[in-house]
Amino acid sequence: MDASPDSPVRSGIPEHGRVPKYYAVKTRLSAVLDELGEGGLLPTERDLAERFGVARETVRQALRELLLEGRVRRLGRGTVVAGPKLEQPLSLASYTEGVRLQGRRPGRKLISLDRATADASLAGQLGLATGDPVWHMERVLLADDERVGIESTYVGVARAPRLDRDFDPGSSFYAFARERLGIAVGEAEERIETVLATPREALLIGTPPALPMLLIHRLSRDTEGTPLERVRALYRGDRFSFTTHLRG
What we know:
Layout: H1 8-12, H2 21-36, H3 45-52, H4 56-68, E1 72-75, E2 78-81, E3 86-89, H5 95-100, E4 106-117, H6 120-126, E5 133-143, E6 146-156, H7 163-166, H8 173-179, E7 185-196, H9 199-205, E8 212-222, E9 227-236, E10 240-243
Parallel strand pairs: 3-10
Antiparallel strand pairs: 1-2, 4-5, 5-6, 6-9, 7-8, 8-9
């Protein structure tokens, strides 16, 4: 047994020493993933069950955990080894900048861009009066054309009067605000929680509804402290991790 403090084998064995059968299979599957490498196609569940001498349901349970952890992903009818998770910095950098830093190609696909009116809660967050016009923009987040999340943005129409005509929805809103509106982001408040996607969100991202998601609520302000946007961003838990730098 691997005695490393980070060993999944050691951390998965309960004190009584009896290892669940699916977990033993999962451990052996991890070695198979290392051998295949990123993008490698796994044998079928039937073949794996025969190789490990277990029932197909045991293999299926091990694969489900590897899928939730982001170690494997579905591709058509098969299962392949997934690449490393995207590390998104918790900073004022946009999603676009964060993905580019890792050598990936960022993108966004527009779902909708509508003009609405702010309710009391949204108006209070954006420094508006109840009923003031706001833009609501919803986009699917992409990394190398892979759907990895959904971003829902609210911004006052007065802050970006021609958003529907001047903004490229496949680009960064922060870059647009800086270059076209003369607005620089000065600070932001973020809250992170784990959730399950709604059926609609799961369909748009292309994931099973039971896949855990990382949800970020963000309220950003310009350098003068005036609210700029409210964002609800949903990221695939199997494809993303978030990092930050702490200093005492």
